[in-house]
Design goal:
alpha+beta; Dna Ligase, domain 1; 3 domains; 5-stranded mixed sheet; binds adenosine-5'-triphosphate; binds magnesium ion
């Protein structure tokens, strides 16, 4: 006799409405999935976090989190869910809280990746605490900011060690700007970082074993930052970008993350790869939006049906053993790291499993993106995001880009 199981997916959301709506619509279209004589079905629920007892049960088996990076109460609820209830989390709050940009730089440096030269300097304004003055007199000696900067060379970047959202980031051209920016950094702990000359800025969004590398133009307004261009990197740089993104995620146990990499010819320099709450708005991803939400659904369904366990521990030493192997050159190391990452994400099994258990998903997503429901969602988002006199123009803009995806995807599915 066949068994049935219903899996609840929890969405822990901020103000966003677009991708959750898309996620729910596509999840409904997954329908039932049968594997090993068990019929699985899926529901999603938008979570609220009330006062909670540390032993309370958690109804959702898997939670996609968009809050823990910013807010403590949901973050602590997620930790309890991971430790007490075994809830599967995208992402683990443990590694995202402790492995901010600075730790990620250190770890990737240790693996031999091309992290730009970076120096951490003490706080400009130390924490307001009685014990600070006597304590700091012992360990926090005066230092020469100008000579550190001169050694790194101008222009350089000053940015918070934990990063995120362009907060406190400045490009510094000379010594006067250096001191002004440091004075303004106040109670933020800052990195000084050498500038990487680059031709391309790649932004790679990863969801489980899936990675989309996008041509990102940080100087443009939000709606125009992601260019739709498929061969903007050399094949070698493209492969390296995918590998580095996936390795970072596997190394830290992150499953829903974006990485920023500066690319010069075949060389790839990762500069930012700890984004616990990556941008997935339809108004910035447009063309890539259907892929992103499909991947979120696909990976969630895969994890639930195959009973994948949430991970709270890491495999750091395995990576370091490769880093320390004198018999391997840089490319061989990258390949060996990637093999661990693919093992962790079950990449091969994932794609085989999707092919046999979710053969209808591509058509369903294509159908949904051409439906009135998608249209309504896009209209609502544009209405909520732009002033009345620009709504028409932006609706056309995003429609044009999404329609381009519809054409490309239709062609891909027919071949
Ligand atoms: N070393 C560097 N060389 C060249 N450009 C850099 C460097 N570091 C930062 N930048 C530029 O500054 C921007 C912001 O830096 P970074 O990504 O490190 O900070 P952030 O606060 O995480 O910003 P966001 O959240 O918008 O990505 C980058 O997108 C890039 O355009
Ligand atoms: Mg960044």
């Amino acid at each position: 006799m066949d068994l049935t199981r219903i899996h609840a997916i929890g969405l822990l959301l901020g103000a966003e409405e677009d991708w959750p709506h898309a996620f729910e619509a596509i999840l409904r279209r997954v329908g039932e999935v049968t594997a090993d004589h068990v019929t699985h079905s899926f529901t999603s629920e938008r979570l609220t976090i009330e006062p909670f007892d540390l032993t309370d049960p958690v109804h959702s088996e898997l939670v996609i989190d968009r809050l823990a990076h910013w807010y403590y109460h949901p973050r602590e609820w997620l930790k309890k869910a991971a430790l007490v209830n075994g809830t599967y989390l995208l992402n683990s709050p443990f590694t995202f809280q402790s492995m901010e940009k600075h730790s990620a730089y250190c770890a990737m440096l240790r693996l031999g990746l091309k992290v730009p030269r970076t120096v951490l300097v003490p706080y400009k304004n130390p924490v307001d605490n009685d014990r600070w003055a006597p304590t700091s007199a012992k360990y926090n000696l005066p230092f020469d900011l100008s000579s550190i900067a001169a050694d790194l060379g101008y222009p350089l970047y000053m940015k918070p060690f934990d990063g995120g959202g362009w907060r406190g980031v400045s490009r510094i051209e000379n010594e006067a700007e250096l001191h002004r920016a440091y004075d303004e950094s106040g109670e933020m702990l800052m990195h000084l970082q050498a500038t990487v000359p680059h031709e391309k800025f790649a932004r790679a969004l990863s969801i489980g074993p899936e990675t989309m590398v996008m041509d990102f133009r940080p100087d443009k307004p939000m709606h125009d930052r992601y260019a739709v261009s498929h061969d903007f990197l050399s094949p070698v740089a493209g492969e390296r970008t995918v590998a580095i993104s996936r390795i970072v995620n596997a190394f830290f146990g992150w499953e829903f993350n974006s990485a920023e990499l500066l690319v010069q010819g075949d060389e790839v320099f990762p500069i930012d790869y700890a984004n616990a709450c990556p941008d997935v708005a339809v108004t910035s991803l447009h063309y890539y939006f259907p892929w992103a939400i499909k991947a979120l659904v696909r990976w969630s369904v895969y994890c639930l049906v195959t009973g994948r366990k949430t991970k709270v521990d890491l495999q750091t030493e395995r990576y370091f053993a490769i880093a320390d192997d004198p018999g391997l050159d840089a490319d061989a190391k990258l390949a060996a790291y990637l093999a661990i990452a693919d093992e962790q994400f079950e990449t091969e099994r994932y794609w085989e499993w999707c092919a046999s258990h979710l053969p209808h998903l591509d058509e369903q997503v294509l159908d949904w993106v051409t439906s009135t429901d998608f249209d309504r969602m896009l209209k609502d988002v544009v209405k909520a995001t732009y002033p009345a006199h620009q709504q028409h123009e932006f609706l056309d803009h995003f429609h044009g880009l999404v329609d381009l995806w519809v054409i490309d995807e239709g062609a891909r599915l027919r071949t």
